[in-house]
Every structure is written in structure tokens, then in C-alpha cells.
Amino acid sequence: MVPQHLVPLDALPLLPNGKLDRAALPAPQTAAPAAHTRQAARLPSTPQEQQIAAIWRELLGVERVQLTDNFFDLGGHSLLAMRAVIAIEQQLGWRIAPRRLIFESLGQLARPGAAEPHTV
Fold first, then answer.
1. Distance between CA 27 and CA 5 in Å, rounded?
2. 8 three-state secondary structure
3. Which of 42, 40, 62, 34 lies closest to 108 in space, CA to CA?
4. In 3D, which of 37, 15, 36, 34 has the Cα closest to residue 25?
């Protein structure tokens, strides 16, 4: 499992008995990525990229999906990943392994030849 957020601390807050004081841990900051990072990314341009981006926007409730975005980084989880895989197969006829959503960006998923054609 990979943590969704990392918060650097100088020291862990401890209780008098030496155990971790979970209530004293700071909440992770959910700040948007830096503007220069977001501007450097490209928007979906091919029909396949646009279709996958539309699926992600609907499932994840986000306004904008870029080619460098990752499904799980945008807030996806395993159940939504399965829904995305099914929607991609129904709309594009592509079979995408669910684990690809963990490691690949939208641009990598939509690259020509990156998916197995649907066969019945």
C-alpha cells in the first residue's frame, strides 16, 4: 500500500506512556499542485484521450483532467477504478488492466496500441 499523503514532521507526538498521540498528528494539506506544474501538462486532444478524461471527470467529480494526471492521484480508489475499466471497455472497446490505473497517466493509457482490443 502506498500512502496518499506524506507530512514531514520533526518529531512524532507522543503520549506520556510513549505511544503515538494520533490526535495530535497534523492533518495533511490538500493544496493544489503548483501552478507551473499544472500549466506544463497538456490537455487531452485525441478522441481516445478526451473519452477517457470524460469518464474520469464523471467518476471522480473533477473539473479538469490532464494527460499527466493519474486516476488515483485525482482521488480514485479501487471500486471507482473498476467502474473506469468497465466504462473504457464499453465506450472504446479497450481492455485495460485495473492495475494500470495505479501506475500510468491518462496519456499513457490512451496511447495507441496501449490497450488490448476487445474480443468476444
1. 10
2. coil
3. 42
4. 15
Question: Hunting for cell 496511447 — which residue is that?
Answer: 111
Residue 49 grid cell? 484521450
Task: Render the burial of 90-99: b for 16+ CB within 10 Å, e for the rest.
Answer: eebebebeee
Q: Please list, in sequence order, all residues whose beta carbon lies within 8 angstroms of the beta carbon of residue 109, skipping any fewer than 6 positions away.
A: 52, 96, 100, 101, 115
Q: Report residue 83 as a C-alpha cell.
A: 467502474
Tell me the sheet residues that pair with 14: 20
pLDDT along the chain (120 residues), means of 10: 78 93 84 52 86 94 92 92 95 92 92 58
Give this prediction's pTM.
0.62
Give the per-residue pLDDT at 42. 83
pLDDT for position 13: 92
Residue pair 50/44 in contact by the 8 Å Cβ criterion: yes
| Residue 26 cell numbers, joined | 497534523
